[in-house]
Amino acid sequence: MENFSLIRRLSQFGTLMQTRFCGREAGRDQFGNVYYRSRKTPKGVREKRWVMYAGEPEASKVPPEWHIWLHHTIDAPLPESSPFHKPWQKPYKPNATGTNEAYFPPGHVLAGGKRARTTGDYQAWTPDES
User: Fold this and answer.
1) How many CA atoms lie within 13 A of 28 on its CB side?
2) pLDDT in tens, 26-35
């Protein structure tokens, strides 16, 4: 069950109203997030850009091509045909910390607690040695 917070609900309502009356959809990403820009921008003022998250608001759900658009680094999100997309790049994944998908290195208690023994090329330093 989701925690109920009146302040949070009012904040979300305000953002929804701002989006409905002042926003124009700029696009969507593979996670279902919807990106908006302001309908009217006064001369000499930078346009406002924002995202409405699909599900729980989590900034790491914003892929790089949309992140640079949100921060006014580029005027439009990078298309798939962009030279900045390389065939060797892995697909973007949001931060999985705190979820079942989180990474635990070998030897971590939550990953079984067993790590490989050292190979013998390591010798511990002790303070009494010169």
Assistant:
1) 5
2) 999 988 999 9
Buried b (16+ CB within 10 A) or exposed e, 17-46: eeeeeebeebeebebebbbbbbeeeeeeee
- Domain presence at residue 67: yes
Per-residue pLDDT reduced to its tens digit, 9-21: 777 788 888 888 9
Q: Is residue 48 situated within a structural domain?
A: yes
For residue 16, the SS3 value is: helix
pTM: 0.67
Evaluate the CA torsion angle 67, 71, 74, 77 in order and state its sign.
positive
Length of the chain: 130
Please indicate, yes or no, if residue 37 is contained in any of the structural domains: yes
Domain that holds residue 53: 23-79
Do strands 49-52 and 23-28 pair parallel, antiparallel, or not at all (unpaired)? unpaired
